[in-house]
Design a protein that fits this description.
The structure holds 2 protein chains of 2 kinds. Helices cover 36% and strands 27% of the residues of chain A. By secondary structure, chain A is an alpha+beta fold.
Chain lengths: 582, 187
């Protein structure tokens, strides 16, 4: 079988590797570097450039330098707001496009340029043509994001033999030298743009994913943005980004950093200072967002944290001591940092490539689909056909029948997600079923939903009478997440209040109407434990609120509410203490 | 019809060792998973996958056993078995209590209003904990009965099997619901 390479197409960096005499080996570029920044620079004339050279151009021409394009791949406009230095384009509901110098690109076209460079580096190092690849994606990527990634590989001139989930790939790298063992492990993968947590069982060469969860919009980039927001230095955005990233990296091992930027702001020299404590304070709320996913994945795997043997850290952001501390606290054990956080995923992709090509003999990966797959049914509900965390590949069938006599077609909307209402889930696409004319309930069509090993959906319709099978082409949903449209509408209504004062007062009065009885109730329950002064202050603040309501003064009422809120903090504390005593 | 027991090389019995079933699934997957060049077989793996899903859960395993041995047995919808009556009431009450608490919390607009609910939240959490313990115990008891039945199984204890099936099905559903609730309410 011919060679298959493994590729980690990361938000920040990409890597490529190939099996060599039974071991996965990562390939270096002409400069000897194994990491290639996932950055593309589009000059006014000439070929786009990729990698470190492109990253340097961000300082000079940010609008023509595309980085972190993985955050846009497979997404539609309106799915969420984005914050990048280059322009995004597209009408509501359409796939997001990247706009550079009056040209528009699909995000996968930009990724394809990165893949092309990796392919060229590999061909040079291996002295042979490279046409087949395994490419990794965040485990929590949906169908569109996987399909777009696959397309990026094809645009780069390769057949994508498999799309592999990143934490699973990291597990392969971890378990390569432990094939005789049995273990239950978690892989905590916090990268530049995405977060995944997967739980696997290793059993003598079989790597079975039990459950996976994550957030495709949570990563180191968010920490960088938060640091930049707090940086008051009079320097350009690109300089801020560079300096906060350098500070962040250094603070993994140092307690405080000072970075001098000579000639930064109009010829003057400025210094950026940051301590580990400040970094932790800023990063903590972002990193905390990983916690609910960790709890969810343990519940789905039906395991307690104590039943795990190891928690493996992957992804550059896990170098932060804050992250390591959080993982230790959530899982009740010191995380395993034996894997190179930047390289483990690429090594794993290479191993999977080896499994597919036959170069690796005694390992097999049983992965799962991360999101429930279902269709919309009566009442706008989501009917799950393939539940999340089902081992793939998997098939599931549904029987459809005509609801009225003579009905010739039925529209089926397919969705991915965990919410009860169809409209809250991600629309994968829709298709039409064609019935032969028949009395009600007599026409039957069996539809088979298959999620393949890449995590991609294929639909087959089978006529139960003739047995004829037909591949069903799905149309990608174009009506934009109606939610996004409604939000946009809602936002505009918010501003429809002619008299801003009116609106502020109405909101403040609603709050006061809720706050005053709450204060009375709290005083009844624990008021006796307050000092006379404290009670007096509360009484005064209550009077101020009531007066503000009477005068109809919006700002005054708002301030009075806030003051009352503040004065009742002690009451709140007493109530909670009492509750905890049982 | 498909015989999931045969697919995973297991005897057709009410009780199976979970680890043994998993091992059987892993060994066969190592050969037939579509990724394995040469011996990989997507169709066969799909069947193994389905078989494992059915056999690993006691309720679905019993239902399948009944399908194979006594197809006329009533495994459709049924009300909770009598012996689960108390647990059923308790679970219903707990659900209603948590739903009410959730509604009250989202209506609470100030830290003080939320603090007023702290007492109820602490009490509700304790009840949820107690319910989960009770569920675990009920499942353990059902498992023990299953093993006992398995020990003397001659192939014709249909009524007993049906009864145990319904019991396990309800307990399994309630356990999943309480696990969801724990995710939401426990810290």
């Amino acid at each position: 079988m011919s060679l298959i390479v493994g590729i980690d197409l990361g938000t920040t960096n990409s890597l490529i590797g190939a099996m060599d005499a039974g071991f996965p080996v990562l390939i270096a570029d002409a400069d000897g570097e194994r990491l290639t920044p996932s950055v593309v620079y589009f000059p006014a004339e000439g070929e786009p450039c990729v990698g470190r050279a492109a990253a340097r151009m961000r300082a000079v021409d940010a609008a023509a330098t595309v980085s972190s394009v993985k955050r846009s791949i497979g997404r539609r406009v309106g799915e969420e707001a984005d914050d990048v230095s280059y322009q995004l384009a597209g009408a509501k509901g359409e796939p997001v496009r990247v706009r550079v110098r009056d040209r528009e690109f699909a995000p996968e076209e930009v990724s394809a340029l990165v893949l092309r460079k990796l392919k060229a580096d590999a061909e040079r190092a291996l002295e042979q043509e490279v046409t087949r690849a395994v490419i990794t994606v965040p485990a929590y990527f949906n169908d569109a994001q996987r399909t777009a990634t696959k397309r990026a590989g094809e645009l780069a001139g390769m057949t994508v033999e498999r799309i592999v989930n990143e934490p699973t790939a990291a597990a392969l790298a971890y378990g390569l030298d432990k094939l005789g063992d049995r273990a239950k492990i978690a892989v905590f993968d916090l990268g530049g743009g995405t977060f995944d947590i997967s739980i696997l069982e290793l059993n003598q060469g079989v790597f079975q994913v039990l459950a996976t969860n994550g957030n495709t919009r949570l990563g180191g980039d968010d920490v960088d943005a938060a640091l930049m927001a707090e940086c008051r230095l009079p320097i350009a955005d690109w300089q801020k980004r560079d300096v906060v990233i350098e500070a962040k990296h250094r603070l993994s091992t140092e307690d405080a950093v000072e970075i001098a930027l000579p000639f930064a702001a109009g010829g003057e020299s400025v210094t950026y200072r940051l301590t580990r404590q400040e970094l932790d304070r800023i990063a903590a709320p972002i990193v905390e967002r990983t916690r609910p996913h960790c709890r969810r994945v343990l519940a789905d795997a039906k395991l307690a944290a104590s039943e795990l043997d190891e928690v493996i850290l992957v992804g550059g952001q896990t170098r932060m001591p804050l992250v390591r501390g959080l993982v230790a606290e959530i899982f009740g054990r010191e995380p395993n940092i034996s894997q190179n956080p930047d390289e483990a995923v690429a090594l794993g992709a290479t191993i999977q490539a080896g499994i597919l090509s036959g170069a690796v003999q005694n390992m097999v990966l049983l992965d799962v689909t991360p999101l429930s797959l279902g269709i919309e049914t009566f009442g706008g509900l989501m009917n799950v056909i393939i539940p999340r965390n089902s081992t793939i590949p998997i098939k599931a069938g549904e029987m459809f029948t005509n609801a009225v006599a003579g009905q010739t077609s039925m529209l089926i909307k397919v969705l991915q997600g965990e919410r009860e209402l169809a409209k809250d889930n991600w629309p994968l696409g829709h298709f039409e079923l064609e019935f032969e004319r028949a009395p009600k309930g007599q026409a039957r069509l069996g539809v088979q939903f298959e999620i393949d090993a890449n995590g991609l959906l294929h639909v087959l319709a089978r006529d139960t009478k003739t047995g004829a099978e037909k591949k069903v082409e799905m149309t990608s949903a174009i009506d934009v997440s109606d939610e996004a449209v409604e939000k946009m509408l809602g936002d505009s209504l918010e501003h429809a209040f002619e008299d801003v004062n009116d609106r502020v007062f109405v909101e403040a009065k609603l709050k006061a109407d809720e706050l005053l009885p709450a204060v009375r109730k709290a005083l009844e329950q624990v008021g006796a434990d307050l000092s006379d002064d404290e009670r007096g202050l509360i009484a005064q603040r209550v009077a101020e609120v009531e007066e503000a309501i009477a005068t109809g003064a919006a700002q005054l009422l708002k301030r009075a509410n806030a003051a009352l809120d503040e004065s009742t903090q002690r009451l709140a504390t007493l109530l909670i203490e009492r509750a905890m005593r049982g | 019809m498909t015989d999931h027991f045969a697919l995973l090389g297991q005897e057709r019995r009410p009780w199976l060792d979970a680890e043994a079933v998993k091992e059987a699934f892993h060994r066969r997957s190592a050969e037939s998973h579509p990724d394995v060049p040469g011996s990989g077989d997507a169709g066969y793996f799909a069947e193994l996958n389905a078989a494992y899903t059915v056999l690993r859960d006691p309720a679905s395993r019993l239902r399948h056993l009944l399908e194979l041995t006594s197809p006329e047995a009533a495994t459709g919808q049924a009300p909770p078995p009598a012996e689960l009556g108390d647990l059923f009431m308790r679970i219903g009450a707990m659900k209603r209590r948590l739903d009410a608490l959730a509604a009250a919390q989202s209506a609470a607009g100030s830290p003080l209003a939320r603090a007023l609910l702290a007492g109820e939240e602490a009490a509700a959490r304790r009840e949820l904990s107690a319910v989960r313990v009770a569920l675990d115990a009920a499942l353990a008891a059902a498992d023990a009965e299953l093993r006992e039945l398995d020990g003397r199984w001659a192939g014709d204890e249909t009524a007993e099997l049906v009864h145990l099936y319904h019991r396990l099905a309800y307990l399994g559903r309630w356990q999943a619901q309480s696990r969801e609730a724990a995710l939401r309410w426990e810290t």
